[in-house]
Design goal:
By secondary structure, this protein is an alpha/beta fold. Helix content is 49%, strand content 11%. A hairpin with an 8-residue loop joins strand 1 and strand 2.
């Protein structure tokens, strides 16, 4: 059901009758909901074109319209206001309640979308930096599916880069790998606790110990060549890491179809590099192999004041490095090989990457390389959804009091504990699973309600509140409706919208439906979050002002019950897209 489309058609018919023509969108939701449900500013454009005042044009159009479903009126200085009649609203509400997915129309041309939104690194504990990508990615995935597209989700683990060589080198020097390197002792059990100590130590050490850095570089190369014992150690590290990553993602209601990583394309690296060589796209630079991806106007060198200065550029876009000086692979190499593999296996119409906005330059280079080498077909869309940083109340990246990055598991525990405090205060007692559902909802909604590209403040107290624009408030609204419906055996199906409270529920449901398209168009979930919150608020006013179950008039009572059912259906659909649970009780 598309109300804007219906109104647009009525207006266009009227325009033709009056001898007017204009292109573009001519109907929008009213920015003054107290005056109208929808509005059109078409008269301003027509005024310039036909040299008539907006008021004259508006009145001509309105006079030519005859409708029992919509009321059209003029609003100075040149708007046409549109209000849905009671009859129309009742008909809409009835149709929405009976339809699947609130009548949201499936796309006529479904696409296959491959989404890459994991990004966890093997040998490293998931931390705050790994939170936004799966939360945003899963919701975008669900949004594509809502409109009838097919999706494939890939966590694409970071399991083949320098962090592997660093960790193996450190573990060897600390005596954990004597079984592999010296043939002595028992085979060690590599644990996440061990990796959580060894990788940070190695990562810090590489900054000051050049000999160790070179050793780790060499170990990475030997691993990428699948030499022993490096490959066997890596397999053990990968297995224990994946188990931890999967547990954390499951706690967040995040799921993937594919658990591949950079290592999955190790056999395609040489072929990928040769594609660039054979097409004359690669050149050698200081022993490395690079591809010039700068477009005209980029990479313009700024003259140096003296020969020892660093070369700087106007609008810099340095070349993409596809092979290191020692023959080793980089993220660029494995990402290009991954596109090659994905196109051979799935041939997706679009590949969507969800990552930190600090990787924007990497993806510009990646997409340009893929198109230049025709690894990505001309008609394939490559999309990078770049998100901002999650900060603490001080406006800086969220860290512990000691300045360390917080583990993702600890964040989940923090919101779960806060949710349990709320449940206990509300007399619900201890319920670990319910506390997890509420805590995760708080975390996700707090994230997704912000525009995807913006930084935001993680305020756990605010996010976990059962009041205001929060995930728990929406869950509580659904639970309140469940409680109300459980007290009656009546099954309301017919609508007769009369009061302002009822009207607001239906209008806000329509706005929620509209928000799904807006979210898909911009690949950000904030429009849905705003719309579903407004719907929940309108239900709260209805709930507080209207006697629902004690209404003596049977027709009205059944209408109220039907509105409750519709509201629950709409909020549940929105929360499902956001991958948020809707508990039966709270």
């Amino acid at each position: 059901m598309n109300i804007k489309q219906e109104i647009t058609q009525i207006l266009k018919t009227a325009l033709n009758k009056c001898g007017y023509e204009i292109d573009g969108n001519i109907v929008s939701l009213s920015n003054r909901p107290e005056l109208a449900d929808y509005q059109s500013n078409v008269c301003f454009g027509l005024s310039k074109k036909y040299k008539e005042s907006p008021e004259v044009i508006a009145n001509k159009i309105i006079d030519s319209i005859k409708s029992d479903e919509y009321c059209f009126s003029f609003c100075a200085p040149g708007f046409i206001n549109i209000i849905l009649t009671t009859l129309k609203l009742s008909s809409i509400a009835s149709s929405l309640l009976c339809s699947e997915n609130l009548g949201i129309e499936k796309t006529a041309n479904p696409k296959l979308i491959l989404l890459d939104y994991g990004g966890a690194n093997v040998a490293k504990e998931l931390h705050m930096g790994h939170l936004r990508s799966p939360i945003i990615g899963q919701a975008i995935n669900n949004l594509f599916v809502l409109f009838g597209n097919n999706t494939i989700s890939d966590t694409h683990l970071g399991d083949w880069g320098l962090q592997m060589g660093l960790t193996i080198a450190q573990m060897e020097e600390d005596g954990f790998l004597d079984y592999y390197f010296k043939g002595t002792g028992k085979k060690p059990e590599i644990t996440m606790e061990m990796l959580n100590v060894e990788y940070p130590k190695a990562s810090l050490r590489k900054k000051t110990d050049e000999e160790f850095r070179q050793k780790a570089d060499n170990y990475t190369l030997l691993l990428q060549q699948k030499k022993e014992p490096f490959f066997s150690v890596w397999q053990e590290m990968r297995n224990v890491s994946v188990k931890t990553v999967e547990r954390n993602y499951n706690n967040l209601n995040i799921h993937f179809d594919i658990w591949d990583g950079e290592s999955s394309v190790s056999n395609l690296i040489t072929e990928t590099i040769n594609i660039f060589k054979n097409k004359g796209l690669a050149r050698e630079s200081e022993g490395a192999l690079v591809v010039d991806v700068a477009k005209e106007g980029e990479n313009i060198p700024i003259p140096k004041e003296n020969e020892f200065d660093i070369q700087r550029y106007k609008n810099p876009m340095p070349p993409a490095i596809i092979q290191k000086y020692n023959g080793g692979e980089l993220y660029m190499t494995t990402d290009l090989a991954t596109i090659l593999l994905r196109n051979r296996q799935f041939k997706p119409d679009e590949i969507v990457y969800v990552t930190d906005n600090r990787q924007t330059e990497h993806f510009i280079k990646l997409f340009r390389c893929a198109k230049m080498a025709e690894i990505s077909p001309e008609n394939q869309k490559l999309t990078h959804v770049a998100f901002g940083t999650m900060n603490g109340k001080d406006g800086k990246p969220f860290k512990t009091r000691s300045g360390e990055t917080i583990k993702l598991e600890d964040v989940i525990n923090m919101v779960q504990e806060k949710a349990q405090e709320k449940l206990t205060a509300n007399g619900m007692g201890k319920n670990q699973e319910l506390a997890r559902e509420i805590g995760v909802a708080a975390l996700k909604f707090g994230d997704l309600s912000n525009d995807v590209g913006r930084d935001y403040v993680l305020d756990i107290d605010k996010f976990c509140s059962f009041e205001g624009k929060t995930g728990p408030y929406l869950q509580y609204t659904c639970a309140r409706i469940n409680s109300l419906l459980s007290k009656t055996k009546e099954d309301g199906k017919n609508f007769l919208i009369s009061s302002p409270e009822e009207r607001n529920i239906v209008i806000n449901t329509l706005k929620l439906i509209d928000s799904f398209s807006l979210a898909l168009e911009n690949l950000t979930l904030s429009p849905i979050c705003t719309a579903v919150f407004n719907l929940a608020q309108s239900f709260s006013v209805f709930y507080n002002n209207i006697k629902i179950l004690t209404e003596e008039d049977k027709v009205k009572r059944q209408n109220y019950i039907a509105l409750c059912t519709l509201t629950k259906k709409a909020i549940t659909l929105a929360l499902n897209v956001l991958a948020i649970d809707t508990p039966e009780k709270m």
